[in-house]
Specification:
alpha+beta, Aminopeptidase, seven-stranded mixed beta sheet, 6 helices, 23% strand
Length: 219
C-alpha cells in the first residue's frame, strides 16, 4: 500500500479517529474527544495514526510506565487511568501499548505492522527497555466452554489455533508472557481476558537517558 503513511496523531485527527474506533468496536463505548486530547497533551510522541491517502485507517496509543509498579495483575482501566494516561511516567523505561485498532476493511494490508513498527521506532529512539501490552483474545469466546484463556493462548503460541490479535503480535516479534483475567470486562469476545506480551529493545543502553531525549517526529 504505497499510499499508507503513519505519523503522530494531531488534534485535528480526533473526530476521524473516534469514528474509526466506533466502527472497529461497535459494542464498546468509544473515547471522547477530551480523552484523546488529554492523551496528546500527556505524551504526544506515543500517539500514532495510520492514513490511507487522507483517510484515517488505524491508530496506536501508548504511554511510558515503570513496569515494576504494574507487573502484577491489573486492568486496562487501572493502568491507563480510564484512558486519560495520568499514570504516564517520564522516568519509566517501558513503553506500554494502551490501544491499537485498524479499519476492518483494511485488515491484512499491513496497517497494524506499520503501527507496531512506529512504536518500535519510538522505543529505539527513546532508549526504552521494552514495549509491553495486554492484547485482546477475540477468538477465545469460541473455545471458552472447553478451555481456559491461558490454555487458549498457549495453543495460539503453539500454532494449534490462530487468533486474530495474538497470532499477529507473535509474528511482530512479541513474546507471550501469560494471561491477565478481567483485563477489559466489556470485551465479550475475549471473555475479559488479555494476553500479556513483550518486545525487548535490542538497542537499549542503560547508561543513556530515556525518552526525554526523543523528539516528536513522524516515523
Amino acid at each position: 500500500m504505497t499510499d499508507l503513511t503513519v505519523r503522530n496523531t494531531r488534534e485535528t485527527d480526533i473526530p476521524a479517529l473516534i469514528d474509526l474506533q466506533r466502527r472497529v468496536y461497535p459494542t464498546i463505548a468509544p473515547w471522547t474527544e477530551s480523552r484523546v486530547r488529554q492523551q496528546l497533551d500527556v505524551f504526544p510522541q506515543g500517539q500514532f495514526l495510520a492514513l490511507y491517502g487522507e483517510r484515517v485507517v488505524g491508530c496506536a496509543s501508548s504511554m511510558v510506565i515503570r513496569w515494576d509498579e504494574w507487573s502484577t495483575e491489573h486492568t486496562w482501566k487501572e493502568i491507563t487511568t480510564s484512558g486519560t494516561f495520568d499514570n504516564h511516567d517520564p522516568d519509566g523505561r517501558t513503553l506500554y501499548g494502551a490501544e491499537v485498532f485498524v479499519d476492518p476493511k483494511l485488515r491484512g494490508r499491513r496497517v497494524g505492522h506499520r503501527l507496531y513498527e512506529a512504536r518500535r521506532g519510538l522505543c529505539r529512539r527513546a532508549n526504552l527497555r521494552r514495549i509491553i501490552a495486554c492484547g485482546r483474545l477475540p477468538g477465545y469466546h469460541h473455545y471458552a466452554q472447553q478451555i481456559s484463556a491461558e490454555t487458549y493462548a498457549k495453543k495460539v503460541v503453539w500454532g494449534d489455533i490462530n487468533d486474530p490479535v495474538l497470532s499477529f503480535q507473535l509474528s511482530e516479534g512479541f513474546r507471550y508472557c501469560g494471561v491477565i483475567e478481567g483485563y477489559l470486562p466489556e470485551d465479550a469476545e475475549s471473555c475479559s481476558a488479555a494476553s500479556l506480551i513483550v518486545w525487548i529493545n535490542p538497542h537499549f543502553d542503560s547508561s543513556r537517558p530515556t525518552w526525554a531525549i526523543a523528539k516528536v517526529q513522524d516515523p
